[in-house]
From TrEMBL:
Pfam families from the UniProt entry: adh_short_C2
UniProt KW keywords: Oxidoreductase
Protein name: Secoisolariciresinol dehydrogenase
Entry-linked PROSITE patterns: ADH_SHORT (PS00061)
SUPFAM superfamilies named among the record's database cross-references: NAD(P)-binding Rossmann-fold domains
Amino acid sequence: MHRSNVFAQRYVLTMHRLKGKVAIITGGASGFGEATARLFVRHGAKVIIADVQDKKGRALCNDIASGTDDCGDSSISYANCNVTDETSVKNVVDLAIFNSASLTLIVDVKKFSRDLDKTILGTTNENFKKVFDVNVYGAFLGAKHAARVMIPRKSGVILFTASVASVVCGETSHAYTMSKHAIVGFMKNLCVEMGQYGIRVNAISPCAVSTPILTHSLGINTATLDRVITESAVLKGVTSDPMDVAHATLYLASEEAKLVHGLNLMVDGGYNVTNPAFSFAFKRLLS
């Protein structure tokens, strides 16, 4: 084959890295999930957004399907899914497997504690349980039903969204920090089992990004949060964005990462290698 044709073929493959694959993105109606859905569609995947935000989820599907994101031969659809309800999770997985033999599950659900006080005595039992219900039990159910269809096929990818809180402690609530440590532990344990069937399992740990859920949780606007993130960043001169996480997810879901298994990929600009004081910067800017 002529060299120019080889390069052209590689370019096409690069632009369609997920052609023929189906991806379920739980929590995909906004934030990291939304960015990932847009990017996956551009790379040829059939995407199912599984969320409880019906209005946002359907609006996103309509926006992408309208051609805004150059859909090509891919497609996108929305399914209401409560990740803490097993029947709901099972139904979404069953819906996906009719479309392709190659399934990717992206667990991007997250719940922050509503307790403003991050101390052990200020943590309410109710909120603690809710955080674990969504972040940990929801991830377990998603992986369980994805594995149900992946194991017989000996094919598939499972990706969890963890957090820099799985490595750096003291800046988020006990419930959230524990839940993200649990996700990484679950991912590593699962990778040993699933590896026997050729199924890859990894996690992605972002740092703070101005997503709707974080700004709402902190009770501040995007501009203020961006200033805090910029001041506390280790890697200066760049601005964190949901698409950074989406690109990391694309890599781990693609064949380019065929030997990447059991990894907690930090997408945090080196934040985890220091002992930063995000909360101190936050207080200084608001004082």
